[in-house]
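quick one before i forget lol
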Amino acid sequence: MTKLGFDQLLDTLSERWQAAPDKPEETPESTLRALWLCAAGTPTSAAAAIGAALPALDSAALDRLEALLQQRLAGVPLGHLTGRQRFMGLELAVSPAALVPRIETELLGRHATALLATMLDQSPAREALRAIDLCTGCGNLALALATANSRVQVDAADLSGEAIDLARHNALALGLAPRIRFFVGDLFAALPSPPDRADLIVCNPPYIPSARVGAMRADIADHEPHAAFDGGPLGISIIERLMREAPAHLVPGGWLGFEVGAGQARGVRKRLERLPSYDAIEEVADANGTGRALFARTRPAAGA
């Protein structure tokens, strides 16, 4: 297959292409360009590959490209082949140790950074705001929050030590390690005790019902960690824990934000509304109007 030129390879790939709806940036062209660059020894995400010049490939590199193309067509995620994924403008290292960041999580990240910016504007005398990112995976949300403003300090936690190693690697590569602390453990139990309350907590939790995890597309079910998807019998076991436990770790008037699956926002919002710790709820929808993230504010201190 790699004896063909780029355009011919692209035609061949397009004929066999199966689009991944959760990664719209991965088109046949961006995928081929990313794999071409990877074969040349320059690992690059699909998003970054679109604007990159393609070098000539020698015989060994052509063999690598052929192997990469065959693996991608067999269902191996592009991020696992290139080791790279773009998230909110950040080029991140990814691996099978953690979920490859999806574009819908940027809805959560962008709303969270906007909230932090508002808090900083309202408290210009404060030296720093504190954020917590649970289920951090490769660290994409924690890194995005720290990148957005130098006055934000982040604690990031994950149940997987391998994921935390990957997140720490990304923080070092981006020069953000001094402002992010990493912990291994189960949600809030991973953090130091007694809790140092945060202004914002974010989380991209598992939210797929257990019975549906094994039935997901093969490129997900066969290659990405099931723990990053399995949200219990109804898909909201971790979300319910977040909603109950977060107020003890937030300052009065602090915000909890988390991603939800398509179709979950309405039911989860009703659960939030029944909890007395929160006094305001915001829903973030995607371009189709589907709620994909919820934010809840704890009640401000009396007289605030």
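fyi DSSP finds twelve helices and nine strands in the chain.
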